Amino acid sequence: MRKGCVRRRASLAAACLILACLAGATAAAKSPSNDARLAGLAARIDAHLAKPAFADATWGVQVVSLDSGKVLYSHNADKLFVPASTAKLYTAALALDTFGPDYRVPTSLFATAKPGRDGELRGDLILVGYGDPTLGTDKRVSWADTLAIALRKSGVKAVRGSLLGDATWFSAPLYGSGWEAADLQSWFGAPVSALSVDENIVRVEVRPAPQAGNLARIAFDSALAAPEVDNQLRTLRAPAPTDISLFRAPGESVLHAFGSIATNAGTQYYRLAVHDPALIAVEQLRAALERQGVSVQGKSRSLYWPQQDESLRGDRIQRIGDVWSPPLADIVRHGLKVSQNLYMQNLLLMVGAKAAADEREVGEASPAFRSSESRGIQALRSYLRRIGVSLDGVLIEDGPGLSRRNLTSPASLAGLLLHVGDNPGAKAFRLGLPEAGVDGSLTGRMRNSAAQGRIHAKTGSMAFTYALAGYAMTAADERLAFAIMLNNYRRPVDAGRPTAELDAIAIMLAELSEGSQP
Question: Do 63 and 72 meet the contact criterion of CB atoms below 8 Å apart?
Answer without folding.
Answer: yes
